[in-house]
Amino acid sequence: MLLAGTTMGTVAEELITLNNEAVKNSTIFSYIGKYKEGREMTNGYVDLDYSIWLYRLLTPLLLTFILPSLFVLLIYFSISICYVFKLHRRFILQVYNDGDFNGWDVARTILSVLWDAHGWIFHGYEVCGLENLPETGPALIIYYHGAIPIDMYYLVARIYLKRSRLIYTVGDRFLEKLPGWKLMGRIMKVSPGSIQSCSSVLKEGNLLSIAPGGVYEAQFGDNNYELLWRRRIGFAKVAIESKAPIIPMFTENLREGFRSVGFAQSLFIRLYNAVRFPVRPVYGGFPVKFRTHLGEPIPYDPTLTPEQLQEKVAYAVERLINKHQRIPGSILHGLMDRFVSRPDKRD
Asked: Is 324 a catalytic residue?
């Protein structure tokens, strides 16, 4: 009996020991399982949080490069309107039944309404000094070239609607290589132009606009608004040959609406000089306040050489910049200008 009791006690102790070890092992496995499960949940949470953070970080950056594409879409929408009128020009002429009627006038009116509405909605566009632009007769408008010359689109539309006068515009040759642009340029009178052709336009009593800085100024100017004309005097020769008055022009906050990227400028300059095509990326589309200022006319002076006239016009444009523009330009302040009027600086 004693031996049997001893044996049963030993067996019981071994069973208890095995049971305790099983409990411990199950506890360990349970803990490991929960740890792994928690780790997976934690990893999932971290990935989700990182995705949200990345989304919030990149969204403003992507928008700054996507918004300029809307400008391109608006241009091609305008081009599509031109092609619609090209296809149905005869029908339009039959409807109006007027021999003096120009079918392209309807297209110009629709385009002007479209761009004027865009300028008013997105930038609260205004024109100051409109009285300096002659209602009849020739005038040469010399303006500062922003990263995108959207202000000239707005001015052309506004003048066409208010004065029924079309401003001829000198554009860079690369525009002719853009698909569909030739028809748009023909309707809105945008062409590269030479000294002789520009003089002829003015002698016929038209308005003509030229940005002496051209694409170079558009690509490599910044929010300090320095003129980058690089001794260009072609516009001065045009003014002297045609004897037309010059109207200096500048649009406030133009560089705050669209800007060129600020890195690798020397690399982009070398690349631009090699290909003569806009290569520096543009970002923006910010709805800042745009206000175009037209300065007092500079009358024809036969005593001035082209170089002297260029200096005189450059000084007039710089005066407009110094008087009306906050330097350096600020996107935030440009947005605030939509709601709060800022007094001009004194000369």
From this structure: no
